[in-house]
């Protein structure tokens, strides 16, 4: 394979892990990010410029063989403009759908993927009307530019309508608003899957996820789902990927409620709930994404035993308790500590689910993070 250079729009931890996955394959990388301290920067050349800086994008395109993303909110017209100069995967049209919760949910509905009720909200009166139609609780979200639970307001009683409108009403003309019925789910799961340029498709085993304040805290793979549920979840992901003519890795997040799966959202990129694949799968999501965008054969998504990923938010803890475990792996993204920021993660893996639960117990106790590991332990022992 001749040396090829992959350009990544966004230079954060996802770009950083793509660079780490691509190095053994002899790939070179160019990163593009508005932040000079983007954490991929120490690993690959970084262009620091705004995502709509056409001059900088043109110079970037001239240096690369293919462009991909580590960030889904790159302006879709910048992605489309780049696609006229150099191959861009996933296709900018898929990015555009995923950037707008309303078009994303409308597409799920068209494709027969079950989901909670939703409505475009353009006024306070309409909000009140739809809250009455859906029943409480429900969630008002910005249509665009929301992530990790940001730009969301949960309505628990009719009295919250004013508060929700005060918090987000000003966004109507900027990002748009969507109201969703609240799903009293027992579990949240995600399908991380990959589609190649030739239409080949592979999915990793469905992953169970736990969020705190809207941010992923822990993931366990495989999730305890029935075979029928696994197949349904993966089937939805495949339908979506084929419809979008998708190329690369993506995640489909779903709620499980009383044996029913309801789609929440898709992320058109490698995903936090797939970080366990670095050590827990035959081929990591990062390597498979690179294979897909370069038109190479996809790698096997078979997983090795059971895996649990713990996110480190705000600041890195002591690595020793994780590294003391026989299959504990440490990832420090090299970021400055900051409240709510994803700064690293750990993955623990074991062939045996109860041995993995015991390792997690030891790590939780040593780090004073019993609350974070508890749902993962419970799932592994179920
Ligand atoms: P999102 O940014 O849409 O992924 O939302 C972040 C988190 O908020 C999700 O992972 C859920 O834990 C919760 N959430 C979002 N939408 C809903 C919903 N319609 N019903 C229940 N929980 C939700």
Automatic annotation (TrEMBL):
Binding site for ATP: 101, 141, 146-152, 180-183, 188, 211, 264-265
GO cellular component term, pick one: cytosol
Documented EC number(s): 6.3.4.18
Reactions the enzyme catalyzes: 5-amino-1-(5-phospho-beta-D-ribosyl)imidazole + hydrogencarbonate + ATP = 5-carboxyamino-1-(5-phospho-D-ribosyl)imidazole + ADP + phosphate + 2 H(+)
ATP-grasp domain: residues covered: 105-294
GO biological process terms on file: 'de novo' IMP biosynthetic process
Keyword Nucleotide-binding found: yes
Subunit structure: Homodimer.
Keyword Nucleus applies: no
Family: Belongs to the PurK/PurT family.
GO molecular function: 5-(carboxyamino)imidazole ribonucleotide synthase activity; ATP binding; metal ion binding; phosphoribosylaminoimidazole carboxylase activity
Keywords: ATP-binding, Ligase, Nucleotide-binding, Purine biosynthesis
NCBIfam families according to UniProt: PRK06019.1-2 (NF004676), PRK06019.1-5 (NF004679), purK (TIGR01161)
Superkingdom of this protein's organism: Bacteria
Protein name per UniProt: N5-carboxyaminoimidazole ribonucleotide synthase
EC class of the enzyme, as a word: ligase
Function, as annotated: Catalyzes the ATP-dependent conversion of 5-aminoimidazole ribonucleotide (AIR) and HCO(3)(-) to N5-carboxyaminoimidazole ribonucleotide (N5-CAIR). Catalyzes the ATP-dependent conversion of 5-aminoimidazole ribonucleotide (AIR) and HCO(3)- to N5-carboxyaminoimidazole ribonucleotide (N5-CAIR).
Annotated metabolic or biological route of this protein: Purine metabolism; IMP biosynthesis via de novo pathway; 5-amino-1-(5-phospho-D-ribosyl)imidazole-4-carboxylate from 5-amino-1-(5-phospho-D-ribosyl)imidazole (N5-CAIR route): step 1/2
Pfam families in the record: ATP-grasp, PurK_C, RS_preATP-grasp-like
């Amino acid at each position: 394979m001749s040396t090829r250079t992959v350009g990544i729009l966004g230079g954060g931890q996802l770009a950083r892990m793509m660079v780490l996955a691509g190095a053994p394959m002899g790939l070179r990388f160019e990163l593009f990010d508005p932040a000079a301290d983007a954490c991929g920067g120490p690993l690959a050349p970084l262009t620091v410029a705004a995502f709509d800086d056409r001059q900088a994008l043109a110079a970037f395109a001239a240096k690369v063989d293919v462009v991909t993303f580590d960030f889904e909110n790159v302006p879709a017209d910048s992605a489309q403009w780049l696609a006229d100069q150099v191959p861009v995967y996933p296709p900018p049209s898929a990015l555009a759908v995923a950037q707008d919760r309303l078009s994303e949910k409308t597409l799920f509905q068209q494709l027969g993927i079950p989901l909670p009720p939703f409505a475009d909200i353009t006024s306070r009166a309409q909000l009140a009307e739809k809250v009455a139609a859906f029943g409480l609780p429900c969630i008002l979200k910005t249509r665009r530019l929301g992530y990790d639970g940001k730009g969301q307001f949960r309505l628990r009683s009719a009295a919250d309508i004013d508060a929700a409108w005060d918090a987000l009403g000003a966004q109507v003309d900027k990002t748009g608003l969507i109201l969703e019925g609240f799903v009293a789910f027992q579990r949240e799961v995600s399908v991380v899957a990959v589609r190649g340029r030739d239409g080949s498709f592979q999915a990793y085993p469905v992953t169970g996820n736990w969020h705190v304040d809207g941010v992923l805290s822990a993931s366990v793979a495989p999730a305890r789902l029935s075979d029928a549920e696994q197949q349904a979840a993966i089937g939805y992901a495949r339908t979506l990927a084929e419809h979008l003519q998708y190329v690369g890795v993506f995640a489909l997040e779903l709620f499980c409620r009383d044996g029913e799966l309801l789609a929440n959202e898709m992320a058109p990129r490698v995903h936090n709930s797939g970080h366990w694949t670095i050590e827990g799968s035959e081929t990591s999501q990062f390597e498979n994404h690179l294979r897909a965008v370069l038109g190479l054969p996809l790698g096997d998504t078979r997983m090795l035993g059971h895996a649990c990923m713990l996110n480190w938010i705000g600041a890195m803890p002591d690595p020793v308790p994780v590294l003391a475990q026989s299959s504990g792996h440490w990832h420090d993204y090299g970021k400055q500590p900051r409240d709510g920021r994803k700064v690293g993660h750990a993955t623990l893996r074991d062939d045996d689910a109860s041995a993995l639960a015991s390792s997690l117990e030891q790590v939780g106790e040593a780090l004073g993070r019993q609350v974070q590991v508890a749902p993962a332990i419970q799932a592994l022992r179920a």
